Amino acid sequence: MEAAATVIFFSFIQSLFGMGLLVFGTPTLLLLGFEFSEVLAILLPASIVISLLQLYEDKLVDGRFARQFIVWCLPALGLGLIALLEFGAAISLELALGTIMLLSVCFQMLPRYSVKTNGMIRHHLKAWFFIMGAVHGISNLGGSVLALVANSCFHEKSDVRKTIAFCYLCFACIQLLILYNFKPEIFTWSQLYLMSIAGAVYVALGRRTFASLHQAVYERLFLAFMFGYGVVLISKAFA
Questions:
Q1: What's the pLDDT tens digit per position in 224-238?
Q2: CA 121, CA 98: separation in Å to the nearest integer?
Q3: Overall domain count for the chain
Q4: pTM for the complete prediction?
Q5: What is the domain range of residue 158?
């Protein structure tokens, strides 16, 4: 019941921004007493469904961005997750990542600093991809870096969402493959039920809400999302 309610609520958030299930669903389920591997088994399949539906509607992502992401980010993700599952000790990065996100939101609200911040991220995109993969592998918090990168490289709401959806789809597929190899016993038929719930939320509610949002409203909502993400990370660091 708790897992289904979590998937329903945060599937709507992911329908708008391309992420949300793992961002907020992971700490929620951990607080409810689920093990980290169980949390991944619950959320990753549902996340994949929404990402696929978003990519089907928003079409192809930027080719150059996708190629660099695959080459520089995904290997770091795989190595980081294997190390986490093998040695069983997650690294606490919440405070650092949360602080970076809050500072980024502040800079984005000031045009002078926004241009400099976005230019810096685009100029060092390969390094940001590697950091993103490593962070996601060892902490499942790579979405914080992804939000910064996507918001710096793209401006149209459909471009931002489909870029995040593509990256999260790649994240989830690799994580599922590695997780199944290490802990196949945690996968049950309940994952199919949760996947259908996530898809239904997107089709019935998320898709229509996204289409109704004007670009300026979406940009403000995305900054609010990033701010909320940063607050959650910092709060978790001091919990």
A1: 998 988 888 888 778
A2: 17
A3: 1
A4: 0.86
A5: 2-237
